[in-house]
Design a protein that fits this description.
- By secondary structure, the protein is α+β, with helices and mostly antiparallel strands.
- The protein folds into 4 domains: about 60 residues, Winged helix-like DNA-binding domain superfamily/Winged helix DNA-binding domain (Arc Repressor Mutant, subunit A, Orthogonal Bundle), CATH 1.10.10; about 50 residues; about 70 residues; about 80 residues, Alpha-Beta Plaits, CATH 3.30.70.
- About 40% of the residues lie in helices and about 25% in strands.
- The strands form 3 sheets. The protein has a 5-stranded antiparallel beta sheet with strand order 6-5-4-3-7.
- A hairpin with a 3-residue loop joins strand 1 and strand 2.
């Protein structure tokens, strides 16, 4: 790394961290502490407001910001595709901001980089289908995002995927929203549920009649969405044998319940790990006669019953 690049990198590091020691900068940039001292002095001489002294660490004066001087083609493509993703998956507020950010990035790119970036982006595309449930997700996404940031409870009607012990799928929930997670193209809310008195997950597409209750809550100090790992309560194992001819299709399905896959002489064996057998019923039936349930016996019986119902319809 030459001196010019190192000086810029030092400023960017100072922007990222409140205080940083010369020794840490020397280690990061593989140079001597004495060289870092000279670099800090050079930056101060050209007007960069650095506060600190040798032995105590350095920081930038509050409010100072230096934008990156240039982007490589690969960096520009990464940023612009990221803007495309935000436009497609986030709410209208972020969509508008992503468009503005893209215009600003494109405005500072040298013409040669902009031309090459455009050429690369023409052969890469993010597909998104604006179906009705996705439009509703985006509408709710902004409301929930604001409630999370302002620590306000929300209420909504919820349609569960599977019925409870009483055969009901509908419920009314009041929750303290902790965070939003995009899972396989669908937004999920992680929230403390007043009804269940524990953290639960809710798909935005299954919500209706969302309201902001204006009731404040306090996010627990120990909760960090970036480190949150939901309890894995998938304790049921389902073993299925597929015909060898469709093994590639099974692999390509990337089905999230798949725990293990292995080739055997009699077929392609797959192990699913689930909470409820109903979770994988439709998926298994979709493979028709190319899939045979090996265990559990109760699931074999369920498949047989569904097949008989289908036969009666024809």
């Amino acid at each position: 790394m030459n001196k010019t690049d190192r000086l810029l990198a030092i400023v960017l590091e100072l922007q990222r961290k409140d205080v940083i020691r010369a020794g840490d900068l020397a280690t990061q940039f593989e140079t001597s502490v004495r060289t870092i001292y000279r670099d800090i002095q050079a930056l101060c001489e050209v007007g960069v407001p650095i506060i600190g002294a040798p032995g105590t660490g350095y920081s930038l004066m509050e409010g100072y910001f230096l934008p990156p001087i240039s982007f490589t083609v690969q960096e520009a493509v990464s940023l612009l595709i990221g803007m495309d993703f935000i436009e497609q998956q986030f709410d209208d507020d972020y969509r508008v901001n992503a468009q503005d950010a893209r215009y600003k990035i494109e405005a500072i790119l040298p013409e040669s980089v902009l031309i090459e970036t455009s050429r690369v982006r023409k052969v890469m595309r993010l597909l998104n289908s604006d179906k009705d449930h996705q439009l509703k997700e985006k509408e709710y996404l902004e409301k929930i995002r604001r409630a999370i940031l302002e620590e306000r409870k929300i209420g909504f009607h919820y349609l569960k995927k599977y019925a409870d012990s009483e055969g009901k799928r509908h419920s009314v929930r009041t929750v303290a929203p902790y965070g939003l997670v995009l899972v396989e193209g669908s937004w999920m809310l992680v929230a403390q549920c007043d009804l269940r008195q524990e953290i639960r997950h809710f798909r935005l597409s299954r919500m209706t009649e969302l309201i902001d209750l204006r009731e404040r809550f306090e996010l627990p100090m120990h909760f960090k969405l970036s480190k949150y790992t939901p309890l894995d309560d998938r304790h049921l194992l389902v073993r299925i044998r597929f015909n060898h001819e469709i093994a590639d299709k099974v692999k390509e399905s990337n089905y999230h319940y798949i725990e293990d896959m292995e080739d055997h002489q009699d077929g392609f064996h797959v192990v699913l790990r689930v909470r409820h057998l109903d979770e994988v019923l439709q998926w298994v039936l979709g493979w028709g006669a190319d899939a045979i349930v090996l265990e559990p016996k109760s699931f074999q019986n369920r498949i047989r019953e569904e097949a008989q119902k289908i036969l009666k319809r024809y």
